[in-house]
Amino acid sequence: MRPARKIIFYPLVTEKSTDLRTREDKYAFKVDLKANKVEIKKAVESVFKVKVEDVHTMIMHGKVKRMGRYEGKRPNWKKAIVKLKKGEKIEFFETV
Questions:
Q1: Distance between CA 21 and CA 94 in Å, rounded?
Q2: Model's pTM, two decimal places?
Q3: Nearest alpha carbon to residue 81 among 31, 23, 45
Q4: Residues ≥6 apart with Cβ < 8 Å to 51
Q5: Domains and CATH numbers, the chain
Q6: Which of 85, 26, 24 is nearest to 57 (CA)?
Q7: Which of 7, 17, 24, 73 could disulfide-link 28, Cβ–Cβ 3.0 to 4.6 Å?
């Protein structure tokens, strides 16, 4: 298995992810495009020392951007929504 830091890139801190965190104990991360749910679960458990109940993943398609008459595309990326077991918290998010 790959190292956990190669699977989880960084946590997503947006209004929607903050709302998910406060209401449902779900946390959002940007993860490696090739990572699967089992790898993501093990990586979160090892990095943050918590128990993960469920993992949902989605591929976010890159936007098409223009600069003058030239057009380019941002790369696709993967988002993971991780639900923790009851009573678990990730202290890193509590300071944000």
A1: 10
A2: 0.88
A3: 31
A4: 45, 84, 85, 88
A5: 4-87 (3.30.70.330)
A6: 26
A7: 17
